[in-house]
Automatic annotation (TrEMBL):
Polar residues composition bias: residue spans: 25-43
Region feature (Disordered): 1-44
Membrane topology, record value: Multi-pass membrane protein
Protein name (database record): Permease of the major facilitator superfamily
Transmembrane segments: 66-84, 104-126, 135-152, 164-184, 196-217, 229-249, 300-324, 336-357, 364-383, 389-411, 423-444, 456-478
Major facilitator superfamily (MFS) profile domain ranges (all copies): 66-501
Subcellular location: Membrane
This protein's UniProt keywords: Membrane, Transmembrane, Transmembrane helix, Transport
InterPro entries assigned: MFS, MFS_dom, MFS_trans_sf
One Pfam family linked to the record: MFS_1
Gene Ontology molecular function, alphabetical: transmembrane transporter activity
Top-level division of the source organism's lineage: Eukaryota
């Protein structure tokens, strides 16, 4: 591409083009890029000079290629990490003695130890190795381990395999969040983040039904009971999907033209819109030095704590909903079948709130409402005399908790600038999500079955924290945005970058 091709309308060559090899127009961010949707300022700034139909066409092209494969892989990841509850009531609980003491909680907990520790190293390697290669490889590896999990003979062996699955899955979710955030401007991101996550929720919601069908498989060897097929067949599905993912997953947008997915003009349009929106289209690899700098930002840690308090109820429902339903008097079959229905409702409701969030460019008000939904649902589970009320509470709780997963993720990504800081933030936030899983594993103890009241109290406290934190962020960001527009504050060295509330 010639220098003449790289000049903007004034004829000057942008300095960043020499570094990255493509034109990035309109380097200065608008002061009202995201905060005034009714004025239509976002469209005027971000899409100026582009054909609206062409923008939509390219965006749909990216949607179709990026979101389904990541959503499908993450759905398998969710199934693989949470199918222990299904295996337990299908026979593993008796055969592996999971109902004794902490024999069930320890395998649940050990998944999260390597999961938390290995997230940062994995994200540091992502740009160097490439998204398709790295994500497909780690998915292939955890699929192999899942197959092996179908042959364990004791809860101790199960604990080892759970730790290995956690080690391989560690790099997947934060990489997906970072990768998706680099492809879309902020006003488009909530729907895409929710679509990615809700694809996985919808598919994994049916995992209990699938697991029930697998548990009915019988072979001539009576020692090889049906619960083992839950792990073996789901592991095989993971391996097959990982092979497909190698050929389908997109890399970062600046590399998309090199791989032949986008034309040069399509790539430049995507990168220009991103640059106008938040000023971070230029590749910016995460290093340990940058990570140390970003670690001083208290907001990143608060995002993490909010995500911990959000994942805690989702893991609790995933691990214990079939057990709770069984304790309410439902049969094994009905516990499996009813366990899927709340996730279908959650998928529909959460996607609706995501559409509203992007349409009006709001995040925190809806996040708080969904926390209140979770609180209401958990409160209904405390009712002891009406099983229908308890079941309705499970629907509300699963809806509110799962809807807030993509909301917290997207809220944290929307409010930091720079690819390396986005990468760091995704690692910290999802690391705390793993802590939420540990919290859920410990808070719901066998001696508290079948309603696990202590765990429910802990989950209620987490939601209350998120509401208070959400109110605090709202007040702080409103004040900060006034200072930014007055020229008295700059966020992440990007003048004009405003917070999304």
């Amino acid at each position: 591409m010639s220098a003449a091709d790289n000049r903007d309308r004034s004829g000057s060559l942008h300095s960043d083009e020499k570094d990255v090899g493509y034109p990035i127009q309109h380097q200065t961010l608008s002061k009202d890029t995201t905060q005034d949707p009714e004025s239509n300022q976002i469209s005027e700034d971000i899409d100026a000079g582009f054909d609206t139909a062409e923008v939509k066409r390219v965006r749909r092209k990216v949607d179709r290629r990026l979101l389904p494969i990541l959503g499908a892989l993450y759905s398998i990841a969710l199934i693989d990490r949470t199918n222990l509850s299904a295996a337990r009531i299908a026979g593993a609980g008796v055969e592996l003695r999971l109902t004794a003491g902490t024999n069930y909680s320890i395998p649940l907990l050990m998944f999260f130890v390597p999961y938390i520790l290995l997230e940062m190293p994995s994200n540091l390697l992502l740009r160097k190795i490439g998204a398709a290669k790295q994500l497909s490889f780690i998915a292939f590896c955890w699929g192999i381990v899942m197959i092996g999990q179908g042959f364990v003979k004791s809860w101790q062996q199960l604990t080892v395999t759970r730790a290995l699955v956690g080690a391989f899955e560690a790099g997947f979710f934060p990489a997906c969040v970072w990768l998706i955030s680099t492809w879309y401007v902020r006003r488009e991101s909530q729907v895409r983040m929710s679509a990615f996550y809700l694809i996985s929720v919808g598919i994994s919601g049916f995992s209990n039904i699938i697991a029930y069908a697998m548990s009915l498989i019988r072979v001539s060897d009576r020692t090889f009971r049906g619960w083992r097929w839950i792990f073996i067949l789901e592991g095989l599905a993971t391996v097959v999907l990982a092979v497909i993912a190698y050929f389908v997953i997109l890399d970062f947008p600046d590399k998309a033209a090199e791989k032949g997915f986008l034309t040069i003009a399509e790539r430049d349009m995507i990168l220009t819109r991103i640059q106008r929106d938040r000023g971070d289209a230029k590749p910016d690899a995460l290093t340990w030095a940058k990570a140390g700098k970003y670690a001083t930002d208290i907001k990143v840690w608060l995002y993490g704590l909010m995500f911990m308090c959000t994942t805690m109820p989702t893991y609790a429902f995933a691990y214990f909903l079939p057990v709770i339903l069984r304790g309410l008097g439902y049969s094994i079959r009905d516990s499996f079948l009813l366990g899927a229905a709340p996730y279908v409702v959650a998928m529909v409701g959460a996607f609706g709130s995501a559409v509203i969030a992007d349409r009006y460019v709001i995040r925190m008000p809806l996040l708080i409402v969904q926390c209140l939904l979770t609180i209401a649902g958990l409160g209904m589970l405390f009712v002891r005399t009406n099983r229908q009320v308890q079941l309705a509470g499970a629907f509300l709780g699963v809806w509110g908790a799962n809807a807030n997963i993509p909301f917290v993720l997207n809220f944290s990504q929307n409010n930091v600038a720079g690819q390396s800081k986005k990468s760091f933030t995704s690692v910290i936030v999802i690391m705390f999500g793993g802590i939420g899983g540990i919290f859920a594993s410990l808070a719901f103890n066998e001696k508290d079955a079948p309603l696990y009241r202590k765990g429910l109290y802990a989950t209620l406290a987490c939601q209350a924290f998120n509401v208070l934190c959400g109110v605090g962020f709202t007040l702080y960001f409103l004040s900060a945005n006034k200072k930014i527009r007055a020229g008295r504050k700059v966020v992440d060295d990007r003048p004009g970058f405003t917070y999304v509330i």
